[in-house]
Structures are given as structure tokens and as C-alpha cells.
């Protein structure tokens, strides 16, 4: 067994350090003018990584975050601006000196600069682009070109700062090119081979360039026809390809075959994290957009329809229970096991739904192979349902001193868990087929539906076997 104590210790130390930085910033900002606040703020930020500063700024008010941002040196300020959430970026671009924000954009890779401009208010974005055009016209044009692509497309993530050489360039000359241009390139780990028209011919890892004979043309050891995407390709699909093929970069190619840019693995990690957060929030009946909204009334309006719909379904469980009042009155011990069956079946359904939603997201589950996905989930829930039903049935039989009661609990649990597994598998697949977001439809209704089904099965069996229970 692996010892993860050091991992937990380092995580705890990191959290304490972040809390300490937050407190130090808060204390420095609260000092009256002339009482050493500037010195304290400089000391608090000295040597701190931009990621730690971002984490601390999320715990401060917008005005306090602005003060910290304005105090940072340009290099760290640029990285901080790149890592902050859209709401914070919007606030900073509105209230920080415009010339300084333009300086940040000029320091960042253009795909990151385009993301910041897209998150700013329209009037501010236009001003930033104008300022960037005056300072760096070429960069401003690239940002505009990236902004022309859809929000969630690979084109928004790509950068044109990639290593590209001619097919006949020797390995030694390729290394000379990389040394001379490394400072201006996004990465030198991968070298792309283009023809005179800019069409993508192949790709070579830096390791292959280093180990090739110095006079060998790169076309002799490159990998031809590399995996690539169109600029309109969804970012999630680009991230999926990078994960599937273990790529460091993914080329973006036009319909004519010309190389437009690359998407790097660090950008796709951000995409996957963002998509996971969206799926998680939708699965519990929320919406990822509320992360950017602070008004309680707006958040309530987003969540209320799902809460009310869930409550409506749960009322059906009340109707079912009322219909079996006579059964419950004659054998009140049934009520003790209803919450257990509902909870276990609902949890099983949510687990199945989560597995299918994640599989649909990563490509591991395909709609064309829905029978395989359903068969795997049914096989799993048969084992889970049988194990849970046997354990709870034995407990129920011993508790009631009646084998018939144990049988009712066993059958109720077994059927409820397996139906929950099937529903949890089928609902996301049907939602995807119908064009809906499976994460949005599966979560709130899954638990409520299983409550109704589980209770109905349990009480129906109890009523059918009531004379043996008595």
C-alpha cells in the first residue's frame, strides 16, 4: 500500500500557506496610509507564485483584488490576469489603468490575450484592442483573428507561435533554428514540417531531431499525416484527441490543409477542468454560468425550475405512500426500510448516470454502442443489487423475526437498485440522442424518480405478501 501521508501533508501545508497569504494581504490593505501598508504588501507578495496570488485574491473583495493586482510587477500581473475567473477579469479590465492591461496583453500568448479580451465588457474590449494595435499591430491582428472563431472552438485556443521547418532541412539545421527562435515559440518540444505553401506534411518530436544523424533531412524521420483538427472543432473534442493520442500539441489545419496554429496540452487541461465543473453543477440541477453571477436572485431563478420539478416528482412518492396507508398501518416496520431502499437505489442510479455522462464526454461511451454500455451497467447493478438486497434482507428478517418480511425487503431492494441502474444509464443516452445536455437532465430527476419507483415496488410487494407478513 502506498503511503500518501506526505501528499496530505503537502496539501495541508499548501492550504495553510494560501490562507496565510490571504491574511497577510488583508492585513496590509487594512493599514492606514503612512503606517507601513505598502511595505507589508510588498513583503506579502515577495516570491509568491501567481497561482498562489490568484487563490488569495479570490478570497478578497473586488476592490482589494484590484489593489493587489496594481501592486504586482508586470510579469506576475500578466499571469494572474490569465488565471483569474471571468468575473474578476471583467472587473480588473474595467478598473485597472487601460495602458497596463494592454501591457499585460502584449506579454501573454495571443490565445490567452484573446480570452481576456473576450471576457471584458464590449466597450473595454474595443479600447484594449485599439491600445494593443498601437503598441503591437501584428499581435492585435492575431487577437482579432482568434476572436473571429466561435467561443468554444479550437481556433480560440490556438497559437501560431509553433516550430515549423521545410521537409529538406537537416537535423542539425533544425536544431540551429530551434536555438535561434526558442524565445519566440510556444514550445520547441514538437517540430512541424510544412511545404512551401504552408501545408502540414508531418511532425517530429525534439527527441527524434536530437538523435537523428546531423545531415538527415527531417522528412526522413518525421511522422507523416499527424492527427489534426479544424479551427471550428469543439475545444472538448480537441482535448479528447490530445488525451487519446498522448499529444503535447495538436495542430490546427484549415480545410485547404494549411497549418494555422497549435493547441497545447496546458490549454486543454483548462478546458477539461472547466467542462468537468460544468457537468458537475448541471448534474445537481445547477448551471455553470452561475459561477459568474453573484446576485442571489439570479442564482435562485436558475435553480428554481429544477428544484420545483424535483419537488413535483417527490410528491408522487407521497401519493404512492398514501395509497398504501392500510399496508403501512398493519405493518409499521415497513416504514423503517423505505428510506434505505430509496437512498441506495437513488445512489446507484446517480452513479450509473455519472459514469455514462463522463463516458459520453470523453468519448469512451458512443451512442452507436449503447447496448454495450447498458449491458455493462446492468451486469454491475446485478452484483450491487444482489449484495445490498441480501444484506438488508437478512437484517430485515432478523429484525422482524419473519422470513417473509426479509424476502419483501430483499426483492424490493434488488428490483429498485437494478431499475435505478437501467434508468441512470438510459436517461443520459436518450438525452444525448435527443440533443439535450445529459448532465442537465440526469441529476435532479434521477433521485426523485427512483424514490417513486423504489417505494412503489417495495410497498406493492409488501401488500401482495401481507398475509405472510402478519
**What percentage of the residues does DSSP assign to strands (E)?**
5-15%
Question: What's the β-strand tally?
Answer: 6
Task: Give the spatial strand order of the biggest sheet.
Answer: 1-2-3-4
What does the average pLDDT come to? 83
Overall description:
This protein has 470 residues and is mainly alpha-helical. The protein has 3 domains: 7-152, Alpha Horseshoe (MgtE N-terminal fold); 163-273, CBS-domain (Roll), CATH 3.10.580; 289-469, SLC41 divalent cation transporters, integral membrane domain (Tetracycline Repressor, domain 2, Orthogonal Bundle), CATH 1.10.357. It is 69% helix and 6% strand. A hairpin with a 5-residue loop joins strand 2 and strand 3 (200-205). It is globular and about 90 Å long.
How would you sum up this structure in a few lines?
This protein has 470 residues and is mostly helical.
Which tags fit this structure?
470 residues, mainly alpha, MgtE N-terminal fold, CBS-domain, Tetracycline Repressor, domain 2, 3 domains, four-stranded mixed sheet, two-stranded antiparallel sheet, 22 helices, 69% helix, 6% strand, disordered N terminus
SSE topology sketch:
Elements (H helix, E strand, L loop, with lengths): L4 H26 L6 H9 L4 H8 L4 H10 L2 H10 L2 H10 L2 H10 L2 H10 L2 H14 L1 H11 L6 H4 L5 E3 L5 H11 L8 E5 L5 E6 H6 L11 E2 L10 H10 L4 E5 L5 E6 H19 L12 H28 L1 H6 L3 H29 L7 H31 L2 H32 L3 H27 L1 H4 L1
Parallel strand pairs: 1-2
Antiparallel strand pairs: 2-3, 3-4, 5-6
Amino acid at each position: 500500500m502506498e503511503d500518501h501521508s506526505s501528499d496530505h501533508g503537502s496539501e495541508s501545508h499548501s492550504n495553510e500557506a494560501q490562507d496565510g497569504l490571504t491574511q497577510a494581504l488583508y492585513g496590509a490593505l487594512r493599514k492606514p496610509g503612512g503606517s507601513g501598508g505598502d511595505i507589508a504588501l510588498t513583503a506579502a507578495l515577495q516570491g509568491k507564485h501567481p497561482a498562489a496570488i490568484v487563490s488569495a485574491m479570490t478570497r478578497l473583495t473586488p476592490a482589494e483584488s484590484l489593489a493587489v493586482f496594481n501592486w504586482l510587477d508586470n510579469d506576475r500581473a500578466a499571469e494572474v490576469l490569465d488565471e483569474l475567473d471571468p468575473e474578476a477579469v471583467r472587473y480588473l479590465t474595467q478598473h485597472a489603468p487601460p495602458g497596463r492591461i494592454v501591457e499585460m496583453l502584449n506579454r501573454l500568448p495571443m490565445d490567452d490575450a484573446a480570452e481576456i479580451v473576450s471576457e471584458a465588457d464590449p466597450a473595454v474590449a474595443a479600447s484594449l484592442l485599439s491600445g494593443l494595435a498601437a503598441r503591437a499591430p501584428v499581435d492585435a491582428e492575431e487577437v482579432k483573428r482568434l476572436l473571429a472563431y466561435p467561443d468554444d472552438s479550437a481556433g480560440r485556443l490556438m497559437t501560431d507561435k509553433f516550430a515549423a521547418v521545410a521537409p529538406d532541412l537537416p537535423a542539425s539545421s533544425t536544431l540551429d533554428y530551434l536555438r535561434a527562435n526558442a524565445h519566440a515559440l510556444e514550445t520547441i518540444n514538437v517540430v512541424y514540417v510544412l511545404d512551401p505553401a504552408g501545408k502540414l506534411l508531418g511532425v517530429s518530436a525534439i527527441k527524434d531531431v536530437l538523435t537523428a544523424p546531423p545531415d538527415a533531412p527531417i522528412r526522413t524521420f518525421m511522422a507523416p499525416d499527424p492527427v489534426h483538427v479544424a479551427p471550428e472543432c469543439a475545444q472538448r473534442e480537441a482535448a479528447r484527441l490530445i488525451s487519446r493520442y498522448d499529444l503535447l500539441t495538436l495542430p490546427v489545419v484549415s480545410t485547404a490543409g494549411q497549418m494555422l496554429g497549435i493547441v497545447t496540452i496546458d490549454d486543454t487541461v483548462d478546458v477539461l477542468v472547466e467542462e468537468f465543473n460544468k457537468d458537475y453543477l448541471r448534474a445537481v440541477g445547477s448551471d455553470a454560468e452561475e459561477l459568474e453571477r453573484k446576485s442571489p436572485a439570479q442564482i435562485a431563478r436558475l435553480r428554481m425550475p429544477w428544484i420545483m420539478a424535483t419537488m413535483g416528482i417527490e410528491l408522487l412518492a407521497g401519493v404512492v405512500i398514501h395509497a398504501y396507508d392500510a399496508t403501512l398501518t398493519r405493518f409499521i416496520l415497513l416504514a423503517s426500510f423505505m428510506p434505505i431502499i430509496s437512498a441506495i437505489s437513488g445512489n446507484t442510479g446517480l452513479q450509473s448516470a455519472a459514469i455514462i455522462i463522463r463516458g459520453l464526454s470523453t468519448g469512451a461511451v458512443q451512442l452507436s454502442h449503447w447496448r454495450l454500455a447498458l449491458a455493462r451497467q446492468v451486469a454491475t447493478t446485478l452484483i450491487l443489487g444482489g449484495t445490498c438486497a441480501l444484506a438488508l434482507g437478512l437484517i430485515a428478517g432478523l429484525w422482524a423475526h419473519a422470513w417473509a418480511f426479509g424476502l419483501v425487503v430483499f426483492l424490493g431492494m434488488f428490483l429498485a437498485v437494478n431499475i435505478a441502474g437501467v434508468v441512470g444509464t438510459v436517461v443520459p443516452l436518450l438525452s444525448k440522442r435527443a440533443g439535450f445536455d445529459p448532465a442537465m437532465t440526469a441529476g435532479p430527476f434521477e433521485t426523485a424518480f427512483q424514490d417513486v419507483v423504489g417505494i412503489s415496488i417495495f410497498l406493492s410487494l409488501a401488500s401482495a405478501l401481507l398475509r405472510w407478513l402478519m
